[in-house]
Amino acid sequence: MAKATTTMIVCLSLLRVAMAATYSVTDYGAEADGQTDSTKAFLAAWSSACGAAGPATIYVPAGRFLVGQATTFQGPCNNSAITILVHGTLVAPAGYTSAVNWLLFKYVDGVSILGGTIDGRGQAFWACKDAGRSCPQGATVIDYA
Ligand SMILES: *[C@@H]1O[C@H](CO)[C@@H](O)[C@H](O)[C@H]1NC(C)=O
């Protein structure tokens, strides 16, 4: 009985690793209109992905998503395999200053950002601090998937 239970738990764990949970920012209220502040939705999706026991994907669909200044995606997380898959464009707030980092990753390992476009509105805008290995540095457009 105990053995069967253990086997089942092991199987479920493997299944969970194989199928990375996906969290779409639009499910958390992000708007693809380039105007509505979607910061809270991004942070909520991050929170779910960060708390997931296994690999997790944050999905940003097509469209333009406004994400506020100094948005911080903070760990430590329950897994070290978070992928941010961007099909659309991340838009920086108008008038944001290059002195403040726009997007920050703190105390997290293993974040990958794939695809997408960054609209920093002409500023030096991309920062990826204290993060895992896959952070693009100083990119104007990230498209290295
Ligand atoms: C990690 O998982 C535990 C147990 O499920 C949970 O209590 C905790 O809040 C999770 N951590 C994060 C950062 O969400």
From TrEMBL:
Residues 24-69 form the Rhamnogalacturonase A/B/Epimerase-like pectate lyase domain. One of its GO terms (biological process) is cell wall organization. InterPro entries: Pectin_lyas_fold, Pectin_lyase_fold/virulence, RHGA/B-epi-like_pectate_lyase. The keyword NAD does not apply. Residues 1-20 form the signal peptide. GO terms for cellular component: extracellular region. It is found in: Secreted. The keyword Amino-acid biosynthesis does not apply. Gene3D superfamilies: Single-stranded right-handed beta-helix, Pectin lyase-like. Keywords: Cell wall biogenesis/degradation, Secreted, Signal. PANTHER family: PTHR31375. This is Rhamnogalacturonase A/B/Epimerase-like pectate lyase domain-containing protein. It comes from Zingiber officinale. The lineage of its organism: Eukaryota, Viridiplantae, Streptophyta, Embryophyta, Tracheophyta.
